[in-house]
């Protein structure tokens, strides 16, 4: 599989490019403010962006959405509960997805995992059952904030415990920000070392620094 984790902008964001080696169809995730750089990269690699995924609607993740969509014709994909936040920023959603839905990128299969808590329509993307793009739900060694508008600590706890902790340990974790001591990880490693994932009760989760 074609796969690139790209550091973008001044807030430690990660954008992702991935694609099908057979069809050369690609997807871009959370371009942030560096649409041009990412488009030049994907073009140089010989891929065509047909899908623009949104892990969630915060501006540091969606700043480049309109530019990417205009340049490539890629369809903008987001969870249906995130549509209002995108609309408020002038971004239209072409495909509103829900939990458990699969989206094909060439021969690759992207499974949508709805993980509310950081925002109501936050999603993680499980690519071919191997790589998990977690947005601001889970970082290496930490998790996202739940105290921003639309956030919920209870929902974030449930999302991490029921949706992410139950994935196979070999699944690789690719976060939305470079906040850890390394840029990516695995579910197994996070279960052992990430306090947000290791804690067993909502009270423990609440008490985390
Ligand atoms: Fe965020």
Note down, in words, how this protein is organized.
With 209 residues, the chain is an alpha/beta fold. The chain has a single domain, classed as Ribonuclease Z/Hydroxyacylglutathione hydrolase-like (Metallo-beta-lactamase, Chain A, 4-Layer Sandwich). It has 8 helices and 14 strands. The chain has a 6-stranded mixed sheet, covered by helices on one side. The longest helix has 12 residues, at 153-164. The model has no long low-confidence stretch (mean pLDDT 97). The structure holds fe (ii) ion (FE2). Fe (ii) ion binds next to loops. Residues 56, 58, 118, 136 line the site of fe (ii) ion.
Give me a quick take on this structure.
This protein has 209 residues and is an alpha/beta fold. The protein has helices at 35-44, 59-62, 65-72, 83-87, 153-164, 187-193, 195-198, 202-206; strands at 2-8, 13-19, 25-29, 48-53, 75-79, 95-97, 102-105, 108-114, 123-127, 131-135, 138-139, 142-143, 172-175, 185-186.
């Amino acid at each position: 599989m074609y796969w690139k984790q790209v550091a973008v902008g001044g807030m430690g964001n990660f954008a992702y490019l991935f694609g099908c080696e057979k069809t050369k169809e690609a997807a871009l995730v959370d371009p942030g403010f560096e649409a041009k750089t990412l488009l030049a990269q994907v073009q140089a690699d010989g891929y065509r962006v047909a899908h623009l995924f949104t892990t969630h609607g915060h501006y540091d993740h969606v700043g480049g959405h309109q530019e990417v969509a205009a340049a490539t014709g890629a369809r903008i994909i987001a969870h249906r509960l995130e549509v209002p936040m995108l609309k408020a920023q002038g971004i239209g959603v072409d495909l509103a997805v829900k939990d458990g839905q699969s989206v094909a990128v060439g021969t690759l299969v992207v499974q949508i995992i709805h993980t509310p808590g950081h925002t109501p329509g936050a999603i993680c993307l499980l690519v071919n059952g191997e790589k998990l793009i977690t947005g601001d739900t889970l970082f290496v060694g930490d998790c996202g904030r739940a105290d921003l508008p639309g956030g919920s600590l209870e929902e974030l706890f449930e999302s991490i415990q029921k949706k992410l902790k139950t994935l196979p340990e070999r699944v690789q974790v690719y976060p939305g920000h470079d906040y850890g001591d390394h840029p990516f990880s695995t579910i197994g490693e996070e279960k052992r070392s990430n306090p947000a994932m290791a804690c067993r009760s909502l009270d423990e989760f609440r008490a985390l620094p």
